[in-house]
Amino acid sequence: MSDSPSPKRRGLLFVLSSPSGAGKSTIARMLLAADTQIAMSVSATTRPAREGEVSGRDYHFVTDEEFDRMLETDSFLEWAHVFGRRYGTLRNEVVRSIENGCDVLLDIDWQGTQQLKQIDPDIVRVFLLPPSMAELERRLTSRGTDSEDVIRGRMERAAAEISHWAEYDYVLVNDNADACLRRVHTILEAERLKASRRIGLTDFVRGLIG
Predict the structure, then answer these.
(1) What are the chain's domains?
(2) What residues form the annotated binding site?
(3) Where's the Guanylate kinase-like domain (predicted)?
């Protein structure tokens, strides 16, 4: 019998993207509650905090000047303009989590996903689609937080975002949150088992067979 230790696994970057209103934030919260081995990447943003949001938990809320300084010091893995504000994924936080074997969940758009793919080709990309554009508009309207003009702008942006669906590894229709969560979790668990992510697997197998 081999005395070799079981192979460990490096953390992975798990991306969820969707147009506004298609449910990625809801699915992200549900996934975090269901799985203790994955943590949310807390992005920096120049937008103001909304009611109930806490800096450091929901976002790192920064000024435009602070964001500029972070760009100058290469503090972001990726960043993008979204609805007139800037959002960025903090490099040090993500790298530290990955090196410690913790998976990182990123709630980002297609622009950020493209940037991350260039840095780390091993990321897992999941895109969530709404059941229909009519349902997407209904969800946006039911929030009661945006004007008709804002909703119209979000619908126009949604069509542009959906056009990038083919750039993702997995594409799911979010017609039921619980069912969608089960599919997302299945993808995550399967990706964790890939041989390419198992540190020391070659030595472990050699030890098994002598």
Answers:
(1) 11-194 (3.40.50.300)
(2) 18-25
(3) 11-189
